[in-house]
Structure formats: structure tokens, C-alpha cells
Amino acid sequence: MSKGTLFDKVWDLHTVGMLASGQTQLFIGLHLIHEVTSPQAFAMLKERGLKVMFPQRTVATVDHIVPTENQARPFVDTLAEEMMQALENNCQENKITFYNIGTGNQGIVHVIAPELGLTQPGMTIACGDSHTSTHGAFGAIAFGIGTSQVRDVLASQTLALSKLKVRKIEVNGSLNPGIYAKDVVLHIIRTLGVKGGVGYAYEFAGTTFEQMNMEERMTVCNMSIEGGARCGYVNPDQVTYEYLKDKDFAPKGQDWEQAVNWWNSIRSDADAEYDDVVVFDAIDIAPTVTWGITPGQGIGVNQTVPLPSELPSDERFLAEEAYSYMDLAPGNPIKGTKIDVCFIGSCTNGRISDLREAAKIAKGHQVASGVKAFVVPGSERVKKQAEAEGLDKIFQAAGFEWREPGCSMCLAMNPDKLQGRQISASSSNRNFKGRQGSSSGRTLLMSPAMVAAAAIKGTVTDVRELVS
Length: 468
Fold this sequence. Notes:
There is one protein chain. The longest helix is centred in the N-terminal third of the chain and has 16 residues, at 78-93. The protein has 16 helices and 19 strands. The N and C termini lie far apart (49 Å). By secondary structure, the chain is of the alpha/beta class. The strands form 5 sheets. A 5-stranded parallel β-sheet has the order 5-4-3-6-7, sandwiched between helices. A 5-stranded parallel β-sheet has the order 17-16-15-18-19. Helix 2 packs across helix 5, helix 6 (181-192) packs parallel to helix 8 and helix 13 packs across helix 15 (391-398).
């Protein structure tokens, strides 16, 4: 095994060859597909008379377009029904495993693959979805890809990619109560910028990440893409192995011991060289809220919307656009901003630990008058577990709606959409203009616990005021 970073080791092990373009032809160990970016890719294969090369390395689910209130088929939305039928037919024709609604394993693609043990250290993973970087939490190298690249992986199980530089992002110290993984990654993106990671893979290291559970690490890696990085990862360790052990697709028996030995060998070496290193202190991280139209436009909950003069000159034009679109005046506090809709869910924060933290805040309280608040589990397994723990009852008693699994109001390719100028407190990953289904709707990103606090107070609230 060559010395170096995990990224270098995994990249080298999966290199099929070098292309004339200077790119690497990289073998993809696991290909995840869903209903949105796959129909065109399958159509391209048919046009060329090609078959799926390794159907056993492809796994499908449905998540983006599924309604979270009424999932009866056929769907009311005819386009959504067509996309469902296309995925069902393509999987059947190509003998691809498909976790459909009602199988017990359906859910957001970046939630189900880890919980099934499909995602493992040292893998290369691709999916036609930006937030594939989530799987890097396991020490995998995971890429979000476009539709033509989905076609390439289906046809050849390889991708043409340019090798990335590696930036080590070290965060040290314990997080204070009320500070979560979402705050950590929003703080990193706020500091380094939404383009800071262009051309890089981010390796997340330091005692803060070592103390995080796997679901927290997934939240951080999920949003690496929002910082411009093509992928983000955490070196596998005992936390990783304890999460994976006994999962459906995890190695068993003697194979498990061999796998752990190999996983340990691909960890970044102590003397690995990085293209850049950035160090943060956990004590400097506050509950973080976005105020603008990119995930990098964030501030601590007790800070004020920045003045143009406080921003670097190259950020001022976008800031002016954000002030106008969000209708938030520079110099005003973000805390106290009125909220219309509260959404807990998404591939960033729709896992069981996210719901537990939000439920702790919701318990014994009531959603504020005039606020629509709802919780969308990330998968059928998450929903089942949450209900076994009584979390659904806690949310419902507090006035939250309890939904079926899906992407929901993150991308809003389903009935869950903002209306008009509504402003949303969201545990999702993007606050772009129109992101949550309304061309004029506004999104404030924050942790699930912060969303629960906003639902109770009806305004952006410092969750630490509600943490017992």
C-alpha cells in the first residue's frame, strides 16, 4: 500500500488507466441511482444498444419525487408517476436491486445505502445527486455525477475524472451543548467560502470529528459539496466499524476481520502530505443560521446580518442580491426573524439521531400559531425506529406533522413546497433562490434542533435557550 492520504490510496487502487485527456479512468465500486437522473441515462444506453455492465454493483431507490403525505399509486402528479414507472421498468429489465416504497428499505438514497451497509470504507461511489459526498463519512470517495456520467457508469462501471488536490480540515475540541454537526459544517463553509473547495477533496480530521457518531459525520460530508469540494471524507475508525458491524451488506465472520484490517490500512498515514491544511477550534462554533442565498452566507444565531463593509469586496455584489431577495437588512439581528414553515428532514439531517435531537426540543412545547411544521424521516427504517421510540408521538403532540420518507421540501420536486414569499427554517442543505419550491420563497438553513426551536417560538431562536 502506497503511503499518503486515504484519497490517494483509494484513487490509485481504483485507477483503470489514464485517458488522452489527462483524466483518470476510475472504477466505481458502488453506483446508486434514483428516479430523477436515471431515465435519460437508461434511454442513452438503449439508443446505443448497450447493457448495464455490472447490475450487481448498482442499487436503486426512489426519493426525490415521492409525496410524503399520500403515497398511493398512481401518484396524483402524472410526471412523478411516469418517473416511478420508468425506474421500475429499467430496474426490472436490467436486474437491478430496487428498494421501492413499501419494501421496508426505501428512502433517501444517501440515507439507505449507509443504513444497509452498502457504503463501506475504501470504496468509490457515484450517484446522480450532488450530495453523494455524504458517503465519504465512511472513508469512501464518493462523487455526485451528471446524467451523462450516470450513463457512463451504467455502461462501463467507470468514470473519467481529474484527480483532486486534498485539503485537510482539522477541527479540535468538544462541541458545547446546542452545537451540532450542521453548525460545524456551516461554520467551515462560511469561513472558506462556497468556492473554497473547488478542485479539492476535503479530509475532515481532528478530535471534534473523532468524537462524532457516524450520522454526524455524514452531515458534515454531505455538505462538502456546498463548500465547493468535489468530495469530503473522514478516515475510518472504530466508530465506523461499530456502525457497520452486522449491517445487511457488511462483511461477516472471518471476512469482517479481514475487512477491518484492510480498512485500517487505507487510512491517511501520519506523515501524509496535503495540498493545504486549515485548522478550526470547536469552541469558536456557535449555532449557525444562513441569512442569504448560498450556504456560505451564514452567521452565528446571535450575530447580525453583515454590513457590506464587513464583507470582502468580491462578496458584496452577491450580498446585495441576498439582502434584496431575503428581505433581511444588513446590521439587523438574525435572531427573531419570523418563520412561516419549519422542515426537519433531507439527506443532510433526516436520520434517527437528527430526529431524536429535534424531539428533545419539541417535547412539552407547542408549535407557534401560524407556523407549519413537519418532520420527514430519511427512510422507512428511520421512520419505523422513530415510531418505536415514540418520537412521532412527541412531534405530533407538539403540533408537527409526521410524514412518510422522502426528500420532501429540500428540492421540492414533490407536493411539499413553499408558497409565495414564505420563509422556511430548514434542516436541508441549500438555500438557493427558489430551492424549496417557490420562485420567491426564502430558506434559512440550520440544525434540526434549531428548526424545532424556531417552530416553537415562531422566530429564529437560539436553541441553547431551550436545551435543558
